[in-house]
Amino acid sequence: MTGKNLLDCLNSRKKTDIFSVLYGENNLDTAGRRYRRLIEELSDAGIFPEKEFPETRGELRIFSVPGRTELGGNHTDHNRGKALAASIHLDAAAIAAPRQDKQVFFRSAGHRDVKLDLSDLSVRENEKGDTEALIRGIAAEFTSQGTPVSGFTANADNMVLSGSGLSSSAAVEILFAKIFDSLFCGGKRSPLELAKIAQKAENVYYGKPCGLMDQIACASGGAAAIDFQDSQNPEVRKIHFDPAAAGYALCVVNSGGRHSDLTADYAAIPGEMKAVAGFFGKELLRDVDEESFMTRLPDIKKAVGGRAVLRAMHFFNENKRVDAMLAALENLNAPPERKLVSAMETYLALVRESGESSSELLQNIYPTGNSTGQNLGLALALTKKFLKPGAHNSACRSACSDASPGACRVHGGGFAGTIQAYIPHERLEEYRIFIEAVFGKGALTVLRVRPLGAVEVEF
Q1: With 276 labelled, which of 110, 132, 204, 222 sits at a CA distance of 20 to 30 A?
Q2: How far apart are CA 167 and CA 356, in angstroms?
Q3: How far apart are CA 170 and CA 172, in angstroms?
């Protein structure tokens, strides 16, 4: 489709229908302006030299990949545990055109231009940690699976907040995989296949030993319960979840802090869990029987230390909690005659349990060796105080007297960054004012669970 055709589509009724699903009815105008800008920039010779972008007036395609929010299963996937995640309305989007040669030209607002030649798909040490490595690695994996790819030119924009635990990097990885798949392979790959391709590129070419949860959640769409017992072929079970329909705003609050200084803290968590597994001659905790673990606690503590024991306890409990959260969401979606009245309250109680377990057992709230960098703990403490029954102000006390108090928990890796909170709709603006007075304007972001994962947007 030409740029003019796409611009015409942005004024059509079908655009409204598609964007309502992707971004919500309140974001239609913003989404339209964003895509219009991406398309119009492709007609500007300044985006890339014309000789490098001969497709400007030719076939243009639209792609969108959401970020994701972790709902449950904090720090479980790296030991083949269970997790619950959902895609969100914040996404990485691109207008892309296929090329006949092997050249890739990629521009994303706020980032440097990326240019590379896919004639050579070998691993390059000098590219590790760079976007070029991800694109080359994804192209290499498609080629190794028998579907050679050519180059493309793309203009992109990533709305997924960087450093927020919403998986902005995984969204971009899946975006590249979806572009290659749709442009050159007929769009045949399943979300799990795209996720595995992206993960391998990140592991081998980019040089980061990541898990698979982020990529699966970004590719799949909606809420998904993921069981990593078979790490090569994890079980993915999708389920509908709309917190807004249940009366809650699903939020993340950026408490600030740097993740780059926390490598040792992050590495210690899977390392200590694996140390407990090693006590039993196993590689990962998923292979350890919990009853045997509880029986041998004194010996395990002596061998690996108390913190490792606590973190293992979190792993076992969190796995069971993911199952319980999934059951609560299934009850929430049951027909009226079968629905359990307390389904959302049960789910929120489990969210609170997950948060307490992360704080007390997993211990990923306060960074070690930094007695002043405790913003994450402060954000949780303030949110709990705000949600405490009886904490309503006089203006909304009568309207909120029967409301569930909501919930909060650490979001993602922890130690710094974001918390997750479920805030009753009628208290959202009150909470925004309360929390942003401490962490700054814009610290709170309201998320919408998006039902679609990685897609080519077709009008």
Answers
A1: 204
A2: 23
A3: 5
